[in-house]
Amino acid sequence: MADEVLKGWRGWFAESGEQLSFFKVFFRNLFRSGFEWSEFVRQCYEIGYKSFTLVGTTAFIMGLVLALQLRPTLIGFGAESMLPKSLAVSIVKEIGPVITAIICAGKIASGIGAELGSMKVTEQIDAMEVSGANPVQYLVVTRILATTAMVPLLTLLGDVLGLLGGFVAINVNGNVSLFLYFNKCISSLGFSDLLPAFIKTIFFGFVIGFIGCYKGYNSNKGTESVGLAANSAVVAASLWIFVIDAIVVQVSNIIIY
Amino acid sequence: MRHTESEKTVKKNVRSAGRGEEVIYVRGLKKSFGKKDVLKNINFEVNKGENVVVLGKSGSGKSVIIQCLVGMISPDEGELRVFGEEVSALTEKQLKKLRIRIGFLFQSGALYDSMTVRENMQFPLIRILKMNDQNEIDKRVEEVLKSVGLLDSIDKMPSDLSGGMRKRAGLARTLVVNPELMLYDEPTTGLDPITSREISNLVLEIQKKYKTTSIIITHDMECAAITADRVLVLNDGEFIAEGSFEEVKSSKDEFVSSFFK
What we know:
- The complex is a heterodimer.
- Chain A is mainly α.
- Helices cover 86% and strands 0% of the residues of chain A.
- Chain A has one domain (50-256).
- In chain A, helix 4 runs parallel beside helix 8 (191-217), helix 6 (135-173) crosses helix 8 (191-217) and helix 8 runs antiparallel to helix 9.
- The N and C termini of chain A lie far apart (47 Å).
- The mean pLDDT of chain A is 91.
- Chain B contains 10 helices and 10 strands.
- In chain B, helix 4 runs parallel beside helix 6 (163-175) and helix 7 packs parallel to helix 8.
- Chain B is α/β, with parallel strands linked by helices.
- Chain B folds into 2 domains: 2-101 and 179-258, 3-Layer(aba) Sandwich (Rossmann fold), CATH 3.40.50.300; 115-178, no CATH class.
- In chain B, the strands form 2 sheets. A 6-stranded mixed sheet of chain B has the order 6-7-8-3-9-10, sandwiched between helices. A 4-stranded antiparallel sheet of chain B has the order 2-1-4-5, with helices on one face.
- The chains are: A mainly alpha, B alpha/beta.
- Chains A and B meet through helix 5 of A and helix 3, helix 4 and helix 6 of B.
């Protein structure tokens, strides 16, 4: 029993060390000449554009449901007019970034983990390395930068569509113009709300790409390891998203207030 | 008894080597994975223009030898020189330069499955040889694909190719950068006898056309018979026999002769 616990902790420390050395490899290759622009653009398209529908639909429904559930409570307090503000603050500051990141962890981190894992199994990464090409620069750097750039954009889209969902929900029972609704939403948000929310999406994007690449690139050579890489990428990336969220909120609270 | 005869053969052939320009020189190569000693004492050399076939059972460590040669695996002990350079002493940059001179054909072909055959060929030309003239790239890609008989499939995806075509495409991708040394990891595994024969003949044609030096890892005796100038037989982490195909075939060693039954 004690041996197993010890073995588990040893494995955890070993994995942390490996992740740190992968992080160093990424940074070393980030600043090397010959950046793969075409692959970066392709990855932005694959990661960003192809996730628009999923993120947009989820965010819209989320805003709609949130408004429908908040409304009776606010009516109870006689504060129905606070609904746009409540929606704006909760969606832009927390729900939008976190839900978008979790969706991206499920779709993108698992996709990258499975893709690189299968490339490892079929010796494609070895072939790239043995030929004298740089697989880290081509496969890892481009994917991590693409997720770092695309997740904030997807979050922005998610925020807008989430608020739109809230507008639809409000108009099911009442009558508010789109202009008035968005005016109330925007006026209730300050720079101190937007900046930490934006900064954390950059970290979310990075961690989604990094974990996906790490798990795929370091998977074992067996078909089972492809599934394992995809699965563990989602689990680890989701966990990191909540850890980063907690850290950013704490740090921004200390700095701003 | 078996070892005495094998050692004699190896010594005879070590003496006979060195006639040409030495491309590979290996002495005392050892490699273990965990508690398993895969390579115990590997000694051999390959001269320029030679086709050397390494025979051995599955899992005997044949592929580990060529993986050590390109620095994919670090040996535990031993001297390992390729083109006169000690592989384990090379920096990352020097190793990259050395790898450009070596073509490695993987068992599966290892084609990049998100790219077409054309893009697979262009990949090393753009990234390794830093070619940027599109006409020159196209010309080179078409010439190499023609030499392996795959020009018709230039715009196909790897998933649309048969096993034999994948091997040809993989071979073309390694040849496109004009390597001086070719390492084939079981080039005929998983293919039907007719396609296997075609690939074996192709290996031979390529050696003549591109004047390459080759190491062919296989347990396909027909492939060995077609391609080998010299055969090395690996057993229990050591080469136990060496000679021409006919010499090895006539060996009285029980293990070696079992390959020809």
